[in-house]
Amino acid sequence: MLRNLGLLVVFLSVLANWCLAVEDKDQLIKDYEKYTKQSLLWGPYRPGNYLGIRPRIPHSLMAGLFWFNADNIENIHNIRHVCDQGQDFNGFGWSQYDPRIGGKQIFHDNELKLDLTTDFIKNKEGSWAIKVKGVPRPGYEKNANSIVFYAGLEGEGMLTSAVGAPSDGFKRGDPIKLIGQSDEFQGFEIDINDGPNTNQHKFLNKKQIADPDLNPSRTHYVSMRAPNDNVWKAKDIFNVLISESVNEIIARNPDTKNIPHPSSLLTLRNLNGFEGNLHFIQKTFVGAFEFDITFNLEESSNKIEAEDLDLLINQTLTKFDAKFNKVLDLQPPFNNAEYKKFSEEFISNLMGGIGYFHGDHLVDRETEFNEEKYEPIQLEGKPEGPFELFSSVPSRTFFPRGFYWDEGFQLIPILEYDTDLVLEILKSWFNLIDDDGWIAREQILGPEARSRVPSEFQVQNPNIANPPTLMLLFTDLLKKAKETQDSKDFSFGDIDEPERVDKYGDIDFTDITDAHLRYPELLINYAENIYPKLQSHYEWFKRTQKGELEEFEREPFSPNEAYRWKGRTFTHNLASGLDDYPRALPPDIAELNVDLISWVGTMTRSMKQIAELLGKTEDAAKYSKIEYDIQRNIEDLHWSKKDKTYCDVSVDQTDRDVFYCAKGYISLFPFTLKLIEPGSEHIRDIIELIADPEELWSQYGIRSLSKSNEFYRTHEQYWRGPVWININYLVLDSLLHYGTGENGAKLDPETWDLANKTYTELRRNVVENVYKQWKSTGFAYEQYDDQNGKPRGAKHFLGWTGLVTVMMKMPESLK
Ligand SMILES: *[C@@H]1O[C@H](CO)[C@@H](O)[C@H](O)[C@H]1NC(C)=O
Ligand SMILES: *[C@@H]1O[C@H](CO)[C@@H](O)[C@H](O)[C@H]1NC(C)=O
Fold this sequence. Notes:
Layout: H1 2-19, H2 22-39, E1 42-43, E2 52-55, E3 61-69, E4 89-98, E5 102-109, E6 114-122, E7 128-136, E8 144-153, E9 157-161, E10 176-182, E11 188-192, E12 200-201, E13 220-224, H3 234-252, H4 262-265, E14 278-286, E15 289-297, H5 309-327, H6 337-351, E16 355-363, E17 382-391, E18 402-403, H7 404-417, H8 419-430, E19 442-443, H9 446-450, E20 459-460, H10 472-487, H11 515-518, H12 520-544, H13 594-613, H14 617-638, E21 639-640, E22 645-646, E23 648-651, E24 657-660, H15 665-672, H16 681-691, E25 697-698, E26 701-702, H17 725-739, H18 741-745, H19 749-777, E27 781-784, E28 791-795, H20 804-809
Parallel strand pairs: 16-20
Antiparallel strand pairs: 1-2, 2-3, 3-8, 4-5, 5-6, 6-7, 7-15, 8-14, 9-10, 10-11, 11-15, 12-14, 13-14, 16-17, 18-19, 21-22, 23-24, 25-26, 27-28
């Protein structure tokens, strides 16, 4: 396969040069970029909120929704706005979602006894709309549910109400219109209707109403001024407005015996009729309800009208479904309706977690790590930036921001669905590589993102690396490019008669999400742009994470390739991503980490492939040599004959090398990152380790640390036993790699049988358990218990747990 990829990239670059005159190529790139910008402009790009809409533009329009039960004044403290682990949902999120056109989100709110749906759709003209629908659970039809929509404009421009707001609220049926204009949007309007006649607003008698202006059967509107970087706090601002209103009522009627109904007290009051840049619209319903919000550009010739919404939503969902069937085709035993719903929801939630982040972050460039004591250090950050990032997130409730190590895994399923989107996200990440080649492993950009991180974890340090998973994507990407070119009937390697495209000027990119695979010019142009940054990142990685060879008289095949994660402590190696996984004790600068050298091998291979794609033969040869050196050094330095596995290395008190073999995920990296020579005897040992129930095999997936290890299930039990889906995916993918085709033929029959059995059962075990836990709780989780399969850690963890969608697409067994 890898050799084929080499050929392929040469082929692609020749093809690209041959096909197009320069101006055509420029036109192609321009058209593509225009389409990308437009189709990805708006989205639920504030994934840390239940529904937060914004464009991929800093300081622009931000909109959102929050809701609460208005029958109890205390519920002011229990508003649904920021995705919160503690709020009691039987699952929430996108059941169907396509980042280019929209989809459906459902909230099964157990505590409020309400099932809320928010459909979000957008069109080619830059318009979008939301349909909000609520259905109380049986027996709770009398509950008062209050829904607040807000929109705020930051930066230049204005946003204002188009109709005078009556202080006692808008009557039944009255629509509300906001109009605005900003740097990017010449003129736009936001319409909020009152929904169908079946809606019932909360009706109170006179005595229950605190003030004529606080009648919850009306729609209430308030506007105020919020400075830049504050619109995201809309819920907190709402809380302040309500508290002020309540205090004022108490001050006015200190002795009243009439306690007004909470739904009146919890109604927004238009105290001063002021017009600012932040606008709230509040509706309080009893029973089932629905209403619509539409955003249209004034100049648009194809505005979204509320009455067309049902049809447009139907079209959006139908389109999603058709695409899903095409790209994530389920293989046995998962090819049935139940698993389809599961897979659709997982991929949708993963893509619905894509966000746009903007702002500064905190960096400590001064503190050096103490490599004597290895104690945790409190970093002192200074702001740098502002930067922007377009990225998916590991968990909307717990980790609503970009994580370097998670992102590569998260993009693997998305790559199946929308290749161009993945490239857009990768580009955004690579733009963050600084002059030194460093990129912060956690991206906490701006105050909204920062508000979700305890202060001791906010500061990033430029000596700290993290597994370069983003580089994994390139091999997958080039494999896909080959499949696409093959399916176009290009006879591989024969460039005499490819399907000639004379003019690209007329391409309509609508519905094309693999343009980089169809038009090699785009892929090559992309690679050219990112290559310098990647080189500098690669050099930074190798330079800063280097391990010692000479000083400890180690003489492996290559004197250059040995690595050690910087910044570990006695108990943790956060940089490695496997925080509490057991490592050699005491920590020592002599340590060499087998997972790290494997990651550097993956990076090197990707660099080689990109260099080949760009026709940079010298670079490609250089990377190829390093890749080979790394493969050799993994065997020379890290293979322990006695333990029959790959191990970390450290030294004893006399400075002599000793293996540190904590069997588990770390032992597998040369295998999972495909750095073992196909046919090597070590493959069998590794598969035996994986398949042994006394070591790594559990009924729910491969456990992170062997049952036989003294630290198994001790302390935090984070990477010391539980099953993690990302590594299980890598194991499956490697079993496919080593067990099929030419590589498979190199295995002896017994090893092959074991590989096939392990693959088939592992795939089934992992998917079935994640499915089962989702069925019973409504959520995906960060990890699963290796003894009973039960969920552990953060919930709504659609990050790499979303890889089950790709597992279901994998073949049922090896062939
Ligand atoms: C769209 O509408 C058609 C016709 O009413 C219906 O059969 C279909 O189920 C709808 N599709 C979706 C995804 O709602
Ligand atoms: C692969 O393993 C599965 C599960 O054990 C088995 O059903 C299948 O027959 C095996 N395939 C071959 C070709 O042996």
